[in-house]
Amino acid sequence: MENLLRRLSPAPDGRPPGPPAGTPGRRAAQVVPQAGATVPERPGAVPDSRALRALFRTAGSLRRGKAVHTLGAVVAGEVVRHGLREPTGVAWLDEPGVDRAVVRLSRAAGTRRPLPDVLGLAVRVAGPDGEPRDLLLATTGDTGLRRRVLRPALDWRSGTYGSVAAYRTPAGPLLLGARWRSGRFLLAVAAPRGPWRPFAELRLHEDPATAPDRVLTFDPGRYPVPGMDLPMAWLRVREPAYAGSRAGRSRHDR
């Protein structure tokens, strides 16, 4: 587990895991800007929002950790992809394959069982170039407009997890979803008003009930699956919130 975490966690200097720049036969690792740095305009980059950043910085400082989903059970797993009959133009969705994964199961507000909470399912896999690819889901409704609304759940094996925001893909906007079935999560995609189309299974190698809580940050805006970009409007909220949360947390890491 520790080796897998080291492999899939970005380095302290902001570089994602992978070969050093200039390694023959491999693409140089992408440099990821630090929190607070000016991010060049590109898909996934958005202007900062001072008010939102300040709000999440304060929340992170008060909670002595991340502003939301402060802690979560982190376990090793794998994503077994069988692909899709009707392709989306995203290789990771369309093509079969197996990816080693780090999975975090968390509670947004940190309430204790048996109280309900908005539950989080975060998945990190490594691409062929060694760079992390992050996916973030939270408990939502499972049909119609309810897919876009966060919904509390009692247990990580209950309810539907969704991306809330639709990814921009070559096939148009697609929602990502997951649901626990027969000892594993089924991963699926759907057009905003279309049916869910399963493309993979997420298998956990450890029991989250006995796994220790860890602080581990996932950021699909900085580490997207190629061909799956979050909408700019969503990133305008998420990016400064992440930066503020990191700044608030860092006050207690010194």
Describe the protein.
There is one protein chain. This protein is an alpha+beta fold. The protein contains four helices and ten strands, in the order ααβαβββββββββα. It has helices spanning 2-8, 50-63, 91-94, 232-250, and strands spanning 72-81, 97-107, 119-126, 132-140, 160-162, 167-169, 172-181, 184-190, 197-204, 213-214. It has an eight-stranded antiparallel β-barrel with strand order 1-2-3-4-5-7-8-9. Helix 2 crosses helix 4. The model is unreliable at 12-16, 18-48 and 52-64 (pLDDT under 50).
Spatial strand arrangement across the major sheet: 1-2-3-4-5-7-8-9
Q: Which range best describes the helical content: under 10%, 10-25%, 25-40%, 40-55%, 55-70% or over 70%?
A: 10-25%
Number of strands: 10
Q: How is the biggest beta sheet arranged?
A: 8 strands, antiparallel, barrel
Reconstruct the topology from this structure.
Layout: H1 2-8, H2 50-63, E1 72-81, H3 91-94, E2 97-107, E3 119-126, E4 132-140, E5 160-162, E6 167-169, E7 172-181, E8 184-190, E9 197-204, E10 213-214, H4 232-250
Antiparallel strand pairs: 1-2, 1-9, 1-10, 2-3, 3-4, 4-5, 5-7, 6-7, 7-8, 8-9
